[in-house]
Amino acid sequence: RREWNDGPGLQFDPALPPQVTWNGVNGYDRPRSYDQIPPLVSSAVYLDDRMGWRFMGDAQLNVQAGLRLDLLHDGSSWFSGVRDEVLQPRLNVELMPRPWLRLRGGWGHTAKIPPLALLFPAPQYFDLVNVNWYTEDPAERLAVLTTFIRDPTNRKLGFAVSKKAELGFELGVGGSVISLVGFRERLEDGLGIRGQPGFVPRDHYQLTDSTIGTGQPPEIIDPPFMTDTVPVLIDFPDNIYTITSRGLELIASLPELRPLRTRLEVTGSWVRTEKKSDALFFGTQQAFTDFQLLGDIPRTPYWEGITETGERMLFLYRLIHHQPRLGLVITATVQHDAIEEVNDLTATDTLSFAGYMTRDGRLVPVPESERANPEYADLRQQRKGVLTTPEGAPADWLLSVQVSMTLPLEGQLRFWAFNLLDKRGSFPEGAVRWRHYPPMRFGVELTLPTRTFLKW
């Protein structure tokens, strides 16, 4: 696999760079030419084999094993250096001691290549105001800005590796089929953004004349009379996440009720996920912006990364009704959201900070035993932007219907309606988290094969 990046991209006047918003400190990524972005070059080699044995009559054992090597190249060709590599073993085993019983297990590693936007991020721009002389007469106005450019490229950014294991069985008795699988997946070196602290210098200038009404702007007195520092955070792509998921998956198809020509299928899943980040947290965006703009704030606290947890249980019940003589099939599906909870495992009290960042971008850790000392009174702030208590949406359900009917000359007529009762979600009094459903959607589809018209 190789990706090419070609073309001019979006062009702009350097004197009028595009901005979404502007607060006097942070600029936004400027568009750049596509040919300035290196290509994404990767290669892989793999070996795979399948084997099967029969023993003790009808008993059967099937094994699939494989090994894959992925290489992410550092240059622009397959013969350039290797930036990162990952070895991915895989093993799947199925034992069928009886025709109606299957035991399955699997284990292996998979890898995800960082996207091009993280491998080669755009330069980060910081626009600082040195002079802002604003009068009613546009001819007298004067503004001077300095733009600093920082490169957030992380040369060590590499694969995110997922380690998976699952074990389950499939049982078929009396016209019913039941399958239950338990799994565990651990994603290591997950891709994300780490705020890397730093600073940019800001020069302050005096003006030769502050008289209004002269019809011309004042002149700047050089050199600057003062220089201070503005703290910044560089959006540094990095492998910062570890995500662990455990769960169960159920599939059950029950025998048909012949008098009613109806059968029931049930699928369900339960997943519990834990997400850990080793990136530091510097407070909410507004709090850090105030720290940047207000020079009288000498430092701001930072916190260690948090652990986020979530739990979800979902069931789908399908009632399938057949009328063979009419060529009619009616399927009613009930989506049952049984559990949906999220939680942040971290301290939010005023002593939970790990240290502070200075205006010149230095990180100073504070030992836990000293955080209650008087000299750190300005740092004792409650951590915001995280859940202080677990939140969950109440259980709810919605109904969808699909109708399919065979027409003469091999035609098909289908009707479907998602969220037939137009439920918009669960909004009980006192609910912490609301669950929103999309509104009802429906449609009709008519299919007439070409040969139908040829017969006419």
What would you say about this model in short?
With 456 residues, this protein is mainly beta. The protein has three helices and 22 strands. The strands form four sheets. The chain has a 15-stranded antiparallel beta sheet that branches.
Model description:
This protein is mainly beta and 456 residues long. It contains 3 helices and 22 strands. The strands form 4 sheets. The chain has a 15-stranded antiparallel beta sheet that branches. The chain has a 3-stranded antiparallel beta sheet with strand order 12-15-16, with no helix packed on it. The radius of gyration is 31 Å and the shape is elongated. The relative contact order is 0.09.
- Residues in β-strands, percent: over 45%
SSE sequence, one letter per element: EEEEEHEEEEEEHEEEEEEEEEEEH
Taking all Cα atoms into account, the compactness measure Rg is: 31 Å
The helicity comes to under 10%
* DSSP helical segment count: 3
Poorly predicted parts: none
- What is the approximate shape? elongated
Main sheet overview? 15 strands, antiparallel
Number of strands: 22
Mean pLDDT: 90
Protein structure class: mainly beta
Q: How far apart are the termini? A: 50 Å
